[in-house]
Amino acid sequence: EDGDFLALDLGGTNFRVLRVKVSDNGLQKVEMESQIYEIHEDLMRGSGMQLFDHIAECLANFMEKLKIKDKKLPLGFTFSFPCHQTKLDESILVNWTKGFKCSSVEGKDVVSLLRKAIKKRGDFDIDIVAVVNDTVGTMMSCGYDDQNCEVGLIVGTGTNACYMEEMRHIDLVEGDEGRMCINMEWGAFGDDGVLNDIRTEFDHEIDMGSLNPGKQLFEKMISGMYMGELVRLILVKMAKEGLLFRGKLSSDLRTTGHFETRFVSAIEKEKEGLQKAHEILTKLGLEPSHEDCLATHRICQIVSTRSANLCGATLAAVLRRIKENKGVERLRSTVGVDGSVYKKHPQY
Known about the structure:
The protein is of the alpha/beta class. Helix content is 41%, strand content 22%.
């Protein structure tokens, strides 16, 4: 394999554009250049046209920087939201998740919307050859190096997984031979009430304050978008009950979203965690004691550990399914994992 390719990865509050050069002169060589662009909250909740115009503008900016605007390169589009995929290059958005609520996109083909935004600009052209979910992209890139990879897992702004299922178990497709990749959309696990027994008052509060109440309940217990807010809600309750900060609350701690998930990662670092807890709580307008910092560290630990345990339990169920499908005593399989929580949380 060799060639020059573009990749666009949209699935959270940031999106990434990459240029990948693959050369094979006896020895496989892959060179990558990438740029991360931010998606502000007004874009996440504005019109679909504004969002795709912004993506097209960032693509143009990236290609201008690399001086490749005159080339028509093939592009792979990673779009990490629940979709109904009808063709390799056609994917209909079922519903937004992870804080997005752009109008006039649900029920539409996202590839067509991106193509329209690029065509409207008229200053560059690309060939969008495929659209994939990030779980599938992760599994494929891991499988490139490891043929045992049969599962792709994302733990980042959201969470999801895919796995290789036997064709004989897939009713929607004719034929029993071979296997097919299944995008599980496991963030929606529990939307039917099966997780009610383990959901806490804080999970219910997160859900009621979200843009999609009653949806993506499993994701709201695990992913980076909600982890910091879960910790904040617990801190607020404990302070109100006089168990933390001498019963005093700051306006920052009372404000939704002000305890960020990156704070959880910082506080859980092995050596400087308690010092970071003191710095963060002070910046939030509190006067924490050593005991307050210890308690905050423990709360972060509990929220993170629950997230990892839930992820691990569902992943184990998927691997058991693969094992049963193969009818083997012992399964040898690889899981490709990506996502900001998995990569940046020091203990995850």
